[in-house]
Amino acid sequence: MREFLLIFRNSDTSHPAPSPEQLQERLNWMAGIAAQNKLVDKGNRLSGSIAKTVRPDDVVTDGPYTEIKEFILGYVIVKTATIEEAVDIAQKNPILKMGGNIEVRAILTPEEKG
Amino acid sequence: MEDPVAQHHPLLPHLFRQEYVKMTAVLSRHFGLQNIEIAEDIVSDTFLKATELWSSQGIPPNPTAWLYTVAKNSTKDYLKRHTLFETQIKTALGTGELQAEQEVDFTLQTITDSQLAMIFAVCNPANSTEAQICLALQILCGFSVEEIAAAFLSKTETIKKRLARARANLRNDNFQIRQLQAETIQSRLDTVLRTIYLLFNEGYASSSGNHLIRKDLCSEAMRLALILTENKLTSTAKANALLALICFQSSRLDAREDHTGEAVLFEQQDKHLWSRELIEKGNYYLINACSGNEVSKYHLEAAIAYWHTTPTDDNKWEHILQLYNQLVILEYSPITALNRTFAFARVYGKTQGIQEAEKLTLEDINYYHSLLGYLYTGIDTGKAIKHYQKAVTLTKSVSEKKTLTKEIERLMLTP
């Protein structure tokens, strides 16, 4: 078993108030992972408005990277045997239906090389 | 208890057990926890005297008061003897003294305080969870070693050894029972709640063992949780949620078994047998539990139990599913995962339920197979039978075996 970070991205930074159905769908998705005992960290949602980016030479700008069109909205950590299985889990997340995408990244142990 | 007095007066064993617990708590507080054996000796002695005297002279008008007076006197006698020893030998060493002057006080307040302190003393993280439950049953609930062994389906010898080790750990821990400090309460309350929760589950959920003893376990768990909610320091949101859970579940205890002692499935239970009083108590404590923002697993389980006490309407299972979703995210357990999947199937149908269930891969658990048996019923009879058969080989409960076998026979006859 190894841990994977799922990073949720969408072009829309605001978290539009989800409908009860959407909320339930999200919760069902996460509980389905937890029911398989594969949820390591339910993660958090990230604010799009209370955000700064810090750069060298005392440059601090508002918001996340403005150069790119997508913003990180949140993350979840799962524990699966293979990356394919983690991808499988990600594919069922409702964010894909709303134009978002999910990046799946293995979390390295201190000894591992990337 | 098999003494003649008890046989003639069916209420006596109950009285003895109740008073045994209270007196031991008060005296242990008086002597200090490291001297719990002295306290137990005095109490046992008191009951011996009571049995002897009551069988020849009859039961006094106020047996409880009688017991307390005798216990007080026995304590005085003990201390007199002990003081002699203390003054002559031990003073030279300058070690601790027992309070000989102070009379033991059996007022209601002292009894309550002592029992609360005793709960915190027994739920000591130095002991394993199992050992804590055994100790709780013996010291807090007055169960005999035989009764504990029956509840756990263990040998008496095993329980004896476990108790002896656990008691040694208690003595070495130097836990102060006289004055319960706020910090102690803070740091131990979670352990206390978990022990009471497991004690209740042992009685409520275990499918084996003597069912009278199991019922006792449930009511004892309720009594202990009640003591917690009656004290300002321990009446936390979680404690109230736990008590609410216990009340809701207990409301169905009588409906769960028919007159032959066989299990009655939830959906077939006569709802008139559910205790209205306990459901209302559950509501009361659940409201108390929701005064803050805290959502513990006891809150979620109590809320699920609450929904089970309500009539089935369109949204009932959606609420239950939401709660199970939160519960399984908060704390995984195979049973929670399976219950959550059952609720999921109730909301989204059996086909989706099967997909969700088969991901769980809990092949060694009988409930996994009975769940799949249920889900495949009406969809794939062959698979349903296969899963039910697997469940029969895995379950240890006789009544569950019977229920499952009946279901298999019914399915075999279905064309």
UniProtKB/TrEMBL annotation, chain A:
| SUPFAM superfamilies, alphabetized | Dimeric alpha+beta barrel
One Pfam family cited in the UniProt record for this chain = YCII
Q: Where is the YCII-related domain?
A: 19-107
- Quote the InterPro entries the UniProt record gives: Dimeric_a/b-barrel, YCII
- According to the lineage, what is the superkingdom? Bacteria
**Similarity comment:** Belongs to the YciI family.
Q: What is this protein called?
A: Transcription initiation protein
Q: Which organism is it from?
A: Chitinophaga barathri
Automatic annotation (TrEMBL), chain B:
**A GO molecular function held by the record:** DNA-binding transcription factor activity
Q: Which InterPro entries match?
A: DUF6596, RNA_pol_sigma70_r2, RNA_pol_sigma_r2, RNA_pol_sigma_r3/r4-like, WH-like_DNA-bd_sf
- Span of domain DUF6596: 188-289
Where does the RNA polymerase sigma-70 region domain start and stop, copy by copy? 16-82
For this entry, the protein name equals: RNA polymerase subunit sigma
Q: One GO biological process from the UniProt record?
A: DNA-templated transcription initiation
Q: Where does the source fall among the domains of life? A: Bacteria
TM annotation in the entry: none
